[in-house]
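Bug #2210: token dump truncated for Transport permease protein?
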Amino acid sequence: MSGAVTASTAAAPPAVPARRPSALALGWSRAGVETKMFFRERDAVVFTFAFPIVLLAIFGSIFTGRPGGTAITASQLYTAALIGAGVMSASFQNLGIGIAVDRDDGTLKRLYGTPMPPSAYFVGKILHVLLVAFLEVAILLAIGVVAYDVSPPSDLSHWVTFAWVFLLGITASSLLGIAVSGLPRSARSASAVISLPFVVLQFVSGVFIPISELPDWLVRLASFFPLKWMCQGFRSVFLGDAGAALEPSGSYELDRVALVLAAWAAGGLVLCLTTFRWKSRRDG
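Reproduced locally. Full output below:
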């Protein structure tokens, strides 16, 4: 009897170790967690989506003329610019502040100590950002169409332009947001440290003030940063040829838009790889 049991045991196949989920699958799961936490914070949801809408309503009510004598209204100009600012807000600002808070309260440190691959955390964050940015663009565009006669493009080439400007812009902005998350010394200072340069950038990049009305030196300064080019790319999609006359060069320069956004994406990746910290300063 004992020999039979031994033989049976010896003949049993070895147990197959459970296969761990991939980093992408874990990132997708993490994105669900991030999205649920975001929508549970109702004040954050309202502020994130309402802020650009309120700005569009204010500027659309104050400025009612046609800049540069073109057929483009000021409201249409602001709609396109605020779409660019909305994409950068959802990525650069939200990621920079959110990761700084995660680092300060120990969330990053705890996650780093788990078997979850570090890349899954960033995949989850970026997928969440993509959802928020898409919703923000959809809301702003819907308001522009209904209230300000913005015409969505009717040809495929403009939608292709929209897609690559959106993806390149959100990639560059997300990587920069991850990189600058290490600047605040604490969660309490994160909002001020990251929001201030973003607000300044909006003023010099043609979001709040039309780019054609800015001094040349300020336009040259803004040309070093991605927001100016994101807004320019979105203006090419939603304003068409009529709006090109309002650009400093008289054209949308889409080749330079792609080049600058790609360069910032590459630079942001280098900054993330060389400067990102999982621990707060007080943890060493």
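Output looks complete on our side. DSSP finds twelve helices and no strands in the chain. Marking as cannot-reproduce; reopen if the truncation happens again.
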